[in-house]
Each structure stands twice: as structure tokens, then as C-alpha cells.
């Protein structure tokens, strides 16, 4: 199975009700999702099969987050770094630094920086 991922930026992620909805969707779809919640900017990363990632992105869009930007559309992960996640579901971090560290750990920090326009 080829793995896909997507990156979303929003103004902020503070609604616990929306986060609970995203947690449920990630669990149902069996994909890995990482959120930077609690302040500006809100950042979301999703990884899984092509259909699961597209479905998860659709779920985020339907929640109508302020300033929703799909900065990196669902795309295949480079085969040299594509490894299945150890776990599925939704996970949260409190800072952009923690989020960037998670992207570094997955070998996709350059992709992340380009998407966030840090590079």
C-alpha cells in the first residue's frame, strides 16, 4: 500500500468539539493525524492510504475552520521516507516547535517547511 499525506493550516484550533470530531474520524479511517492546537496557527497533518487521507481532509473542510488552507494536497509520500505509522488516531502538540520536531522525526521536515512557507 502506498502512503499519502496532507498538510493543513488554519487560523487556530481551539474548539474541543471539533477536535473530538477529528479524533473520531481519524480512528474510523485508521489514519494518523497530528494537530497543533490551542493557538495561532493551527496546523494539521494526516497520513494514511490515499482514500483515508482525502476523506479526513474532507472532514476538516466540513468543519469550516477559519482561514482553512490545504497547503499540501493529499500526495504520495516519497518512497525513501514512507514508513507506516506505529499508531493511528489523532494526536496533539502544543507548539509549532513540537510539530516541526514530529515532522523531522518522520523525515519530512523539508516538505513541511515548504508547505508552511518557512523555507
Features:
single chain; 119 residues; alpha+beta; Alpha-Beta Plaits; 4 helices; 5 strands
Task: Explain briefly what this protein structure is.
The protein has 119 residues and is α+β, with helices and mostly antiparallel strands. Helix content is 37%, strand content 27%. The protein has 4 helices and 5 strands, in the order βαββαββαα.
**Beta fraction of the residues?**
25-35%
Global structural class: alpha+beta
What is the count of structural domains? 1
User: Radius of gyration in whole Å, from Cα?
Assistant: 13 Å
Estimate the global geometry from the Cα principal axes: globular
Architecture per CATH nomenclature, i.e. the level-2 architecture:
2-Layer Sandwich
**Count of β-strands:** 5
How would a crystallographer describe the biggest sheet?
5 strands, mixed
Order of secondary-structure elements = EHEEHEEHH
Strand arrangement in the largest pleated sheet: 4-1-3-2-5
CATH topology: Alpha-Beta Plaits
Amino acid at each position: 500500500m502506498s502512503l499519502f499525506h496532507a498538510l493543513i493550516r488554519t487560523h487556530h484550533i481551539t474548539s474541543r468539539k471539533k477536535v473530538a470530531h477529528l479524533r473520531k474520524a481519524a480512528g474510523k479511517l485508521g489514519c494518523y493525524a497530528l494537530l497543533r492546537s490551542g493557538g495561532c496557527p493551527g496546523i494539521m497533518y494526516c497520513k494514511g492510504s490515499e482514500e483515508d487521507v482525502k476523506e479526513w481532509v474532507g472532514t476538516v473542510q466540513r468543519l469550516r475552520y477559519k482561514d482553512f488552507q490545504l497547503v499540501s494536497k493529499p500526495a504520495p509520500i516519497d518512497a525513501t521516507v514512507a514508513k507506516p505509522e506505529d499508531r493511528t488516531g489523532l494526536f496533539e502538540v502544543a507548539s509549532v516547535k513540537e510539530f516541526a520536531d514530529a515532522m523531522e522525526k518522520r523525515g519530512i521536515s523539508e516538505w513541511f517547511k515548504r508547505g508552511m512557507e518557512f523555507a
